[in-house]
């Protein structure tokens, strides 16, 4: 039986003690002395306020060092245009959010290189993916600790460990392979031709023609930045595309984790549970109370437990469908397979 360990916020333990309790359950069996340990997390967007705070990451880093590991924090750059589109932008953003090597106690490395192009091609016999392009740093380390913030997500319903690995451990080309199936549509009746999406699009895929936004699908990578910035709800991802993304995320996650076998562990923080993901620059509405911290050696089990706990604490088994019209259980089922 797969175990998921839970530190309940209602027990009123100090944060450091809750974190250490979880670390003791899942990390020692993952790391040997001298291992290079990638601590994968999302270090927040500028202007955001609900990413996992540096003060909550520091005890994990200290625990890894105390048992002989050599940790570093890591993530990959983004497809969209804001403040994490390359390694330099990301490191500046991380520093502005309090993630300094001096405070954390370890280096910070952007895993896919300067411009998101440093990758290793991994063969995978999936229903959707035959190749997965993994950020090269993840293929060079000994152990992986995935620290995820459980919250809502417009495209996936729920963002946790599978999303953190299946998207966040890939190179730019790997991300495009997943996002391409979520190319957005424009509702011409709602579009006012303001041009905000055209200015925002990093890929020059949108032009305002005759007062309406027009998407060039040859250029569009499906990053959905236009969807995020549209104030008139004129841009939206295709409904079928959401399910396809969930399956591809599960397969990509499996391809990454195949390298690690028993050398990976997962920690999910169920606090500041917002409707939107940490990529959104402005803090979004919280829809669930703070619940606690989960740890496991199994990414499917920890995400399933996280989803179940959020539903239970909201007293609503359809909360993710209500919020984003997408069922993250599709991703759980695909990942389980």
Structure write-up:
- The protein is an alpha/beta fold and 337 residues long.
- The chain is built from 12 helices and 15 strands.
- The chain has helices at 15-26, 54-66, 87-96, 101-104, 161-166, 172-179, 196-200, 225-229, 239-257, 299-314, 319-324, 329-336; strands at 4-8, 36-40, 70-75, 108-110, 119-123, 131-135, 143-149, 151-153, 157-159, 185-186, 206-209, 212-215, 235-236, 264-270, 292-296.
- Strands 1-15-14-7-2-3-4 form a 7-stranded mixed β-sheet, with helices on both faces. A two-stranded antiparallel sheet has the order 5-6.
- The longest helix is centred in the C-terminal third of the chain and has 19 residues, at 239-257.
- It starts with a strand and ends with a helix.
- The mean pLDDT is 96.
List keywords for this structure.
33% helix; 12 helices; 15 strands; seven-stranded mixed β-sheet; alpha/beta; single chain; 337 residues; 20% strand; two-stranded antiparallel sheet
Termini distance? 16 Å
Average pLDDT level: 96
State the low-pLDDT regions, or none: none
Biggest β-sheet: strands ordered side by side in the sheet: 1-15-14-7-2-3-4
User: What order do the SSEs take from the amino end to the carboxyl end, as H and E?
Assistant: EHEHEHHEEEEEEHHEHEEHEHEEHHH
Secondary structure elements and their pairing?
Blueprint: E1 4-8, H1 15-26, E2 36-40, H2 54-66, E3 70-75, H3 87-96, H4 101-104, E4 108-110, E5 119-123, E6 131-135, E7 143-149, E8 151-153, E9 157-159, H5 161-166, H6 172-179, E10 185-186, H7 196-200, E11 206-209, E12 212-215, H8 225-229, E13 235-236, H9 239-257, E14 264-270, E15 292-296, H10 299-314, H11 319-324, H12 329-336
Parallel strand pairs: 2-3, 2-7, 3-4, 7-14
Antiparallel strand pairs: 1-15, 5-6, 8-9, 10-13, 11-12, 14-15
């Amino acid at each position: 039986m797969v175990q998921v360990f839970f530190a309940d916020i209602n027990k009123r333990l100090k944060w450091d003690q809750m974190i250490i309790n979880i670390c003791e359950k899942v990390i020692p069996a993952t790391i040997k002395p001298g291992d290079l340990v990638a601590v994968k997390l999302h270090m927040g967007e500028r202007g955001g306020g609900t990413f996992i705070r540096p003060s909550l990451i520091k005890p994990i880093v200290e625990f890894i060092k105390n048992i002989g590991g050599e940790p570093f924090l890591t993530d990959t750059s983004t497809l969209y245009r804001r403040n994490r589109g390359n390694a330099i932008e990301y490191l500046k953003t991380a520093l502005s959010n309090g993630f300094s090597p001096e405070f954390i106690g370890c280096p910070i490395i952007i895993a896919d290189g300067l411009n998101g192009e440093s990758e290793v091609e991994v063969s995978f016999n999936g229903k959707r993916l035959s190749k997965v392009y993994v950020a090269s740093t993840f293929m060079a380390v000994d152990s992986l600790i995935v620290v995820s913030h459980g919250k809502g997500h417009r495209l996936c319903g729920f963002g946790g460990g599978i999303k953190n690995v299946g998207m966040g451990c890939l190179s730019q080309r790997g991300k495009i392979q997943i996002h391409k199936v979520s190319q957005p549509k424009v509702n011409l009746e709602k579009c006012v031709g303001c041009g905000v999406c055209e200015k925002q699009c990093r890929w020059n895929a949108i032009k305002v023609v005759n007062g309406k936004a027009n998407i060039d699908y040859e250029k569009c990578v499906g990053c959905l930045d236009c969807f995020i910035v549209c104030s008139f709800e004129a841009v939206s991802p295709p409904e079928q595309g959401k399910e396809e993304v969930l399956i591809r995320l599960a397969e990509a996650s499996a391809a990454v984790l195949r390298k690690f076998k028993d050398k990976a562990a997962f920690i999910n923080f169920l606090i500041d549970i917002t409707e939107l993901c940490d990529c959104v620059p402005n803090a979004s509405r919280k829809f669930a109370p703070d619940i606690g911290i989960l740890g496991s050696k199994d990414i499917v089990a920890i995400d399933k437990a996280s989803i179940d706990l959020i539903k239970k604490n909201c007293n609503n088994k359809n909360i993710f469908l209500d919020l984003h019209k997408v069922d993250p259980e599709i991703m759980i089922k695909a990942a389980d397979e």
